[in-house]
Design goal:
The protein is α/β, with parallel strands linked by helices. Helices cover 32% and strands 24% of the residues. It contains 14 helices and 22 strands.
Length: 471
């Protein structure tokens, strides 16, 4: 089979100069592993940039490779194939991607590099121009990566970009992470219908679509069978989960709440306009859905929220935080905020700062606005200079530290259930139900991935310390 005979349906294929100058023969068969292949077994390594959803998808693709006979190794080792799952939310993610490609090539100069993910969908040609990669797959084809990988005895494979127009992306491929952490990220939804003027995600992942709840319940059972204690529900817009007429997010979490073996369920992030009173009340009464909400704000100024085309105002956000706090006084509440958006003058920034300071919040994720190609905001007037953006970031980052300290101090002299995750430098670490990291004295490694009662005794050096109850 030659280049002009490859039958990819509807996807756009670009063979770059390197491919056009050579008559490469393509082999599309997957390696089938058996005991006689040990010496020639191909090694594959994965690196993930960005969100929890990317981690879930990388883990699923890695399992495909392992089932096909590849040996999965650490990305810092010498591999035959490096797979990079990219993000495009921030400019830093783009720069980090290039560093990762260069590092992989230094480790294994003869390796192949495949690039998937949001950046691969949005700017495939830019990836090839700026880095030594062998394959770039967009949103439609990333879960078919195995079908595109080849290893030639002589020469190299053609450099291929395969993508599709984003409105051609339909369906939602199931994915969950396993093996890398004590918790599992379970993808319930993909894509987004919100036209936020700063965001590239709809262009990278398409319209909002959700997975069948039967599939998700079965996947949760699979995760439970592997001994994982905590599931994090993830997606692009988790609160927009809807399958058919009768299944929304509340219906899904009620069903997952009944899955035997999963002791903790965490909602990764939920838009304030989608955080209903019914969800808040159910979580407050659930024994497994955790009292932790991550609620994007982005700005405390109604003017800026309007420029961003967010679907709520500052008053609604304030109401949602207070509703959570009223139902669950000890809940963890995290907030996303963007500083330096075009049109955010000193008065608008002060409004954001004042709103956040007035609310009982546990922590902030502060993002410095960066211009993303193809978004409406890139052409907005009222640009904030970069030094001022960074200054505002520092101000809110300091506020976040104060919030975390205040919230942590309120936890002292309480006993909380902690999922033990690591043993490093003589200390166990774990997460409380309300999303605080706790440091404990050295203990047996057998405690990792166990949920134990911990007495929270002190907060020092920006760390919450505890001891296991009864010790």
């Amino acid at each position: 089979m030659y280049l002009d005979e490859i039958p990819f349906q509807r996807s756009r294929i670009i063979y770059l100069q390197r491919a056009l100058h050579h008559n490469y023969s393509l082999s599309w068969s997957r390696p089938v592993y058996n005991s006689t292949m040990q010496k020639t077994r191909k090694k594959v390594a994965f690196h993930t940039l960005g969100c929890k959803l990317n981690y879930a998808e990388t883990s699923t693709i890695a399992r495909q490779f392992e089932s096909a006979g590849y040996e999965k190794i650490d990305f810092r080792e010498s591999a035959d194939l490096y797979v990079i799952n990219t993000c495009s939310v921030t400019e830093n993610a783009d720069r980090e991607f290039r560093k990762i490609v260069n590092r992989a090539k230094r480790q294994a100069p003869n390796s192949k590099i495949a690039v998937i993910g949001c950046y691969a969908q949005l700017r495939p040609e830019a990836i090839v121009e700026s880095s030594a990669v062998d394959l770039v797959l967009g949103a439609r084809e990333k879960f078919n990566l195995l079908d595109h990988i080849q290893f030639e005895e002589e020469g190299g494979s053609p450099l291929v970009i395969q993508d599709a127009q984003i409105d051609e992306i339909h369906g939602c491929v199931p994915a969950y992470s396993i093996g890398d952490r004590t918790r599992s990220f379970l993808k319930i939804q993909d894509g987004c219908d919100y036209p936020c003027t700063y965001c590239t995600i709809p262009m990278a992942r398409g319209k909002s679509r959700s997975l069948d709840p039967e599939i998700l319940v079965n996947q949760a059972r699979q995760i439970a069978s592997k001994g994982v204690k905590e599931i994090v529900l993830t997606g692009v817009n988790v609160g927009d989960y809807r399958y058919g007429k009768d299944n929304v997010l509340l219906d899904l979490i009620k069903r997952l709440d009944d899955v035997q073996g999963i002791e903790r369920i965490r909602i990764s992030s939920i838009e304030p306009n989608l955080l209903t009173n019914e969800i808040v009340q159910f979580v407050s009464q659930s024994t497994s859905v955790l009292p932790h909400f991550h609620i994007p704000l982005q700005s405390g100024s109604d003017k800026v929220l309007s420029l961003m085309k967010r679907r709520y105002g500052a008053a609604l956000f304030q109401d949602r935080v207070r509703a959570v706090r009223a139902a669950m006084p000890n809940a963890g509440i995290g907030v996303d905020v963007i500083v330096g958006f075009p049109g955010e003058g000193p008065a608008e920034f002060d409004q954001t700062k004042a709103l956040l300071a007035a609310l009982d919040i546990s922590y902030l994720h502060v993002f410095t606005y960066s211009e993303r190609p193809g978004t409406p905001a890139i052409n907005f007037p009222g640009k904030v200079e970069l030094p001022e953006r960074k200054r505002r970031n520092r101000i809110l980052s300091d506020l976040s530290k104060n919030m975390t300290q205040s919230f942590s101090l309120k936890q002292l002299n309480r006993t909380q259930k902690v999922l033990i995750e690591t043993l490093q430098n003589g200390q166990l670490t774990g997460m409380t139900e309300n999303y605080l990291k706790v440091y404990l004295p050295e203990g047996p490694p057998e405690l990792i991935n166990q949920i134990v009662d911990v007495e929270l005794i002190t907060y020092r050096d920006q760390r919450l310390h505890g001891i296991i109850s009864g010790k």
